[in-house]
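Q: I'm building a small set of examples for a reading group on sequence design. Run inverse folding on the following structure and report the sequence directly after it, with nothing in between.
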């Protein structure tokens, strides 16, 4: 007798994944908001009356910090987009299906990376094709 392969996650499972995605989305949006606020905050740190060399070091540090914040903000934007599209997949009932193999992504992988669209097998195939 042939074993039936599960084609999609149940409504109960999708609701569970939805809650995980919403939690991650709320945290990512909060982190993005905090970074954006810090990035746009141009308050003076009170170094105007200090030695010019120290001021130059601080300006260099601020520039590096701003560059890092921009990279983090871009990463968070991409993560937020991925979480939003994962929520759409939950609603469309195709959440958890690998876009390469068309097989169900294991629940353990989705718990670790809930916005993924690839199973480990699918990810390996994508990486092999890049070579």
């Amino acid at each position: 007798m042939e074993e039936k392969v599960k084609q999609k996650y149940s409504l109960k499972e999708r609701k569970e994944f939805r809650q995980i995605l919403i939690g991650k989305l709320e945290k990512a949006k909060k982190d993005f908001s905090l970074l954006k606020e810090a990035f746009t905050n141009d308050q003076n740190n009170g170094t105007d009356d200090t030695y010019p060399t120290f001021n130059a070091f601080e300006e260099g540090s601020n520039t590096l910090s701003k560059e890092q914040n921009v990279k983090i903000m871009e990463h968070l934007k991409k993560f937020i987009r991925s979480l939003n599209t994962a929520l759409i997949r939950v609603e469309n009932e195709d959440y958890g299906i690998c876009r390469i193999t068309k097989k169900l992504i294991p629940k353990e992988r989705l718990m670790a990376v809930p916005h993924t669209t690839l199973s480990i097998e699918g990810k390996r195939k994508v990486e092999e094709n890049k070579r």
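The chain is about 65% helix and 0% strand.
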